[in-house]
Amino acid sequence: MTRAIAYPSSSRSEGRLLTLVLGLAILVTLAPVARLFHEGLTAGGGLNPGFLAEVLAKPATRSALWHSLVTAGLGTLISVLIGGVFAFLVALTDLRRKAALVFCLMIPMMIPPQITALSWTQVMGPSSVFLKTLGLAPPLGAPQPLYSPGGIILLLGIQHTSIIFLTLRAGLRAIPQDAVEAARISGARGLRIWWQVVLPLTLPSLLGGIAITFVTALGNFGIPAMLGIPAGYATLPTLIYQRLAGLGTAVLAEVAVLAMLIGAVAIAGILLQRFFQRRQRLHLTGSGGRALMIPLGRARLPVEIALWLVIAAILVLPMAGLLATSLVPAYGVPLRLDTLSLDGWHEALFRQPAIRRAFVNSFLLSAGAAALLMALCLPLAWLMERHKTRAGQLFDSLLDLPYALPGVVLAIAMILLLINLPFTEATLYGTIWIIFLAYLARFLAVMFRPVQSSLRQLDPAMDEAARAVGAPLWRRLRDIVLPLSAPAAAAGAILVFLTAFNELTVSALLWSSGTETLGVVIFNLDDSGETVMASAVAMTIVLVVMFLMAVIQLTSRHLPKGVVPWQS
């Protein structure tokens, strides 16, 4: 009797804790976005459509917007071509070594955009160490072909291929073999089956992937910055960076409008993607039977060779160029036994205080964000699952917004929110804490979603049994929730660490002397002509990324389904 009476008290304490934790999560993730839109709409005091029109009518704004739409749109088209082919072949055919193929295809997405741009510039152009070593370098004075809109489009397409692949593969794998067999019985063959059965059923997945790929490409900063700034080709993210870097906080109102412009396009893309997700669930509800598996027959080996050649072109080739550049004494020197040198690695990793400081900053920021988000998301996800509230449902629907928004938009939002702390004259702008809080806002969804997916698979009876014997909330969290959700939480923590460790888009606008991150250091080293050191630092980050991805891959069998994005 006494234990049964404790239930209402326990529910009230859980409700109060949910209110506290949910309020903290909302403050971290959604308050900066709200502050950004408030600043953009009320610049100059009160609602000021005239200021909005003035900023949007500037030639530089219109030009940057057009450049963003063109590069993001054509880059998305390249992603659809590569990712779509891979998705259809991996999901629907009897290819061998699919896991290895998918793992390699995911690596370009996990490598930071600035490293992607740096690595590709090392395999093209007259100063390419890789081409000089092979005797294929164009003559000195020839232009770097990647410093152009075409170069930006190509690398945006490669960088975001994995998004199309993942979203399309999910739809393809849901097609039951029975549907195709029924079409064959009706006389359909070959391309007709693909056109009339497979494509219509997967079209919502494809369109949803296109929407989110376009949004991601639109907000990409690293590639347009490293390839577009030298060519004088500005997109909206690089225009915001150049305005803020050149004029400081005096142009906050103007860059807030520019950030709001990107944010509005991003939100439209997110809503479109969710709309297509709902249509996908509607189309395939109740589908059953075996997964579709089309035999390739004699074509299997040539198809496998072609796919691995694409992997070599988009992954191995640029990494080889990056490694070659890091092993010469000076950029442009061919790599031979007599020119082989580790001076760039030694200088970068052991002698440059700014680089050592960036390693420490990035490690502490990413590890701290992963640890704190784990501590926040475990009780938050558990309490939201047990206590359905309108506030919780609203937060769940908006949670992905700070991650889906371009990083430069979130950076501007954090500056506006934290440049003057309420009721004080203090500021976090220019300190490492503003970067840390920005990481918490951006990567909370990366941690929360795997934990939420894991907790939804737990049997509520275990918690009820613990409550029946009088176990308090903290004990149930420690003895039941944490052990059972630990694999998903660990995977989420590694993903947070991976993405935060080499992040540039957010920290490019938030760093100051002493708070450099690795992404910023690579960008600055390349910008100042220290290409060999930049390549050494970039190769170090690539090795860290691949090691952590391998750890997730090796432990994936112990993780709930859906936690590891590239797992089939």
Write the layout of secondary structure elements.
Elements: H1 2-29, H2 31-41, H3 49-57, H4 59-92, H5 98-110, H6 113-121, H7 129-134, H8 149-159, H9 161-173, H10 177-185, H11 191-218, H12 222-228, H13 236-247, H14 252-283, H15 300-326, H16 343-351, H17 353-386, H18 390-398, H19 401-404, H20 407-418, H21 432-455, H22 460-468, H23 473-501, H24 518-527, H25 531-555
Helix pairs in contact: 1-17, 2-14, 2-20, 4-8, 4-9, 4-11, 4-13, 5-15, 6-12, 6-15, 8-12, 9-11, 11-14, 13-14, 14-20, 15-25, 16-25, 17-21, 17-23, 20-21, 21-23, 23-25, 24-25
Written description of the protein model:
By secondary structure, the chain is mostly helical. It has a domain at 58-284 and 298-341: MetI-like (MetI-like fold). The chain is built from 25 helices and no strands. Mean pLDDT is 80; it is low at 1-7 and 282-289.
Question: What are the defining features of this structure?
Answer:
single chain; 568 residues; mainly alpha; MetI-like fold; 0% strand; disordered N terminus
Examine the secondary-structure arrangement and name the CATH architecture of the domain at 58-284 and 298-341: Orthogonal Bundle
- Proportion of residues in β-strands: under 5%
Helix content estimate: over 70%
Q: In one word, what is the shape? A: globular
Largest sheet: none
Quickly give the structural class.
mainly alpha
Average pLDDT across residues?
A: 80
Order of helices and strands: HHHHHHHHHHHHHHHHHHHHHHHHH
Enter the CATH topology name of the domain at 58-284 and 298-341: MetI-like fold
